[in-house]
Amino acid sequence: MDSATFLAKVAEVLDFDGDITRGQNLEDIDMWDSLGILSIVELLEELGAEVDIDTINNLKTTDELIALAGGAVND
Asked: What is this structure's pTM?
């Protein structure tokens, strides 16, 4: 999937009303909290990426999140 589709899925699992874009600061997404992070872990695992909570907690931007998804997201 491309990055726009991936970020739309991120917005969906976070129940975020709005667009999430490349380069966006994750702290600016009001649903980026502990429950949201668990939802992101589940999404990434569904896409075949191996992740852990600590790694996701240290992410700063959506670009870093896309990189973490690995081969599941390509442009």
From this structure: 0.91
Given a cut of 90, whether residue 5 has pLDDT beyond it is yes
- Rounded Cα distance, 38 and 52, in Å: 10
Residues 6+ apart with CB under 8 A from 3: 22, 66, 73, 75
Query: For 15-56, what is each residue's pLDDT tens digit?
Result: 999 999 999 999 999 899 999 999 999 999 999 998 888 999
> Which residues partner with 25 through β-bridges?
61
**41, 51 contact by CB (below 8 A):** yes
Cα–Cα distance for residue pair 73/10, rounded to 1 Å: 12
Q: What six digits make up the tokens of 69?
A: 């998804």
Question: For 29, which DSSP code?
Answer: S
Contact 13, 40 (CB under 8 A): yes
